[in-house]
Specification:
With about 425 residues, this protein is α/β, with parallel strands linked by helices. It contains 17 helices and eight strands. Strand 4, helix 2 and strand 5 form a beta-alpha-beta unit. It is elongated, with a radius of gyration of 29 Å. The two termini are about 25 Å apart.
Length: about 425
């Protein structure tokens, strides 16, 4: 109930003639204030005229007046600047810590808003607001999608900055870790991130001109020369044995320890998505000096990024999906769809985060431009929204709708959603 009171207050869902203090004084709300999502009063810097007297201060909202005491606001200095106590039921007088008697407004939630909110919480079909989506104005959809797109990039910026901190301030290393994580394409994301963090790039750079040595380091750090892979020796796979021997030398040289091989997932993966294939593609990308932030920063168009992200496997993996098991010859290039996902989930957020870090708005704008140029993602989330009538054209649209589902729909946070607002508000 208290959430709905917050909602009704924030959106002024009342008739002016209905709002009076508990002692009969007229209340005119000039400004509801700025909603506070942290500790302290619920709304800051509101402007209210009570009985003809203008007040500027904070607003506190509760289901009942007595909640003021249950929450110990009467002993908290932070609530001395409250000018109005908004409640669903006035059941007690309340005073601030400094002894001031607070005016109280008993506010009712319109029945239609209650009913609409209950529908959102109880409807089985997903998303519960599906009925009104086709009726939304293009302006409402566009403004909300733009806000969600920015919100998602801001969220990803936090993750990127955390990786920068974990990489001792190196943006290049953080970019490589982000790229590697997304090479896991979901199921192996955690394993790829742990793998990338275990690789000392400043040492590996000394062997960047030798693809064989890079692949030896990459495969070895993945744990593929120990544990369950030891059985490969009996197959007398020459390439495997050479890689293993090279890794033993390099890992001793750089004092490297591989990650736990059991982190990798193979179940229900298509062979072309096996970690061996992805690691070989990454090794070729690294060998060609295209797996770096500096390479991305030089790109001004999506086409240029697509060109540097294009990669393939080393010759051995053209005839193998795993060590010691020969298959038909196939180039195993990274698909266009996979490259598009890597740009959306790696290049765009890192560009945006780095642009914010160095104060370069052009890089931030470029990140948004890339999202608008790229085709929308095709997954169960975007297909769900399309079935509801939501237009999805670009990667910016799909990223916005992924944000909407994960951060609002999944959390039943309809009161913060603009589509929820359209659904909840009383209709004439």
């Amino acid at each position: 109930m208290e959430k709905l009171l917050h909602y009704v207050w924030r959106h002024k869902m009342w008739r002016q003639s209905d709002i009076k203090t508990s002692d009969g004084l007229d209340v005119e709300v000039i400004d509801v204030g700025l909603q506070n999502h942290n500790s302290g009063p619920d709304f800051f810097n509101a402007k209210i005229r009570i009985g003809g007297v203008l007040w500027v201060g904070n607003i506190e909202i509760h289901d009942r007046s007595s909640d003021w005491y249950h929450h110990s606001h009467d002993t908290d200095d932070h609530y001395n600047n409250v000018i109005l106590h908004v409640v669903g039921l006035v059941d007690k007088e309340v005073r601030t810590k400094d002894g001031r008697l607070l005016p109280q407004l008993q506010l009712s939630v319109p029945q239609e808003v209650k009913d609409n909110y209950q529908n959102l919480l109880s409807v089985d079909r997903y998303p519960p607001c599906y009925k009104i989506i086709p009726e939304l104005s293009p302006l409402t959809v566009h403004s909300w999608m733009s806000a969600l797109q920015t919100e998602r990039l801001e969220q990803k910026t936090i993750a990127v900055r955390q990786r920068v901190d974990e990489c001792d301030g190196s943006w290049e290393a953080a970019y490589f870790v982000t790229l590697a994580r997304n090479y896991g394409f979901g199921i192996n994301g955690d394993a790829f991130e742990a793998w990338a963090k275990s690789i000392p790039l400043h040492n590996v750079d000394h062997h960047r001109d030798d693809l064989f040595q890079i692949e030896a380091l990459f495969m070895g750090q993945a744990g593929f020369f120990s544990g369950r892979e030891s059985r490969v020796e009996s197959r007398e796979d020459e390439y495997y044995l050479r890689l293993r021997e090279e890794y033993r030398y390099l890992s001793h040289k750089f004092q490297m320890t591989p990650i736990d091989v059991n982190l990798w997932r193979f179940l229900r993966l298509r062979p072309q998505n096996f970690p061996y294939i992805r690691l070989s593609q990454l090794a070729v990308l690294y060998y060609n000096r295209h797996a770096s932030l500096s390479a991305v920063l030089e790109c001004e168009t999506v086409k240029q990024v697509e060109e540097i992200m294009t990669t393939h496997v080393s010759p051995y993996w053209e005839t193998h999906y795993s060590f010691g098991s020969v298959s038909d010859t196939k180039e195993k290039n990274l698909s266009k769809a996979s490259i598009r996902l890597l740009i959306i989930n790696t290049v765009v957020p890192v560009l945006f985060a780095y642009g914010r870090y160095v104060g370069n708005e052009k890089l931030c704008d470029r990140a948004f431009d890339f999202l608008e140029e790229l085709q929308a993602e095709d997954n169960h989330i975007t297909r769900m929204w399309q079935e509801c009538g939501m237009p999805i054209r670009t990667a910016g649209d799909s990223q916005a709708l992924i944000q909407l589902k994960k951060e609002y729909c999944d959390r039943k946070d309809c009161l913060r959603c603009r589509i929820g607002w359209e659904y909840l508000k009383p209709h004439p």
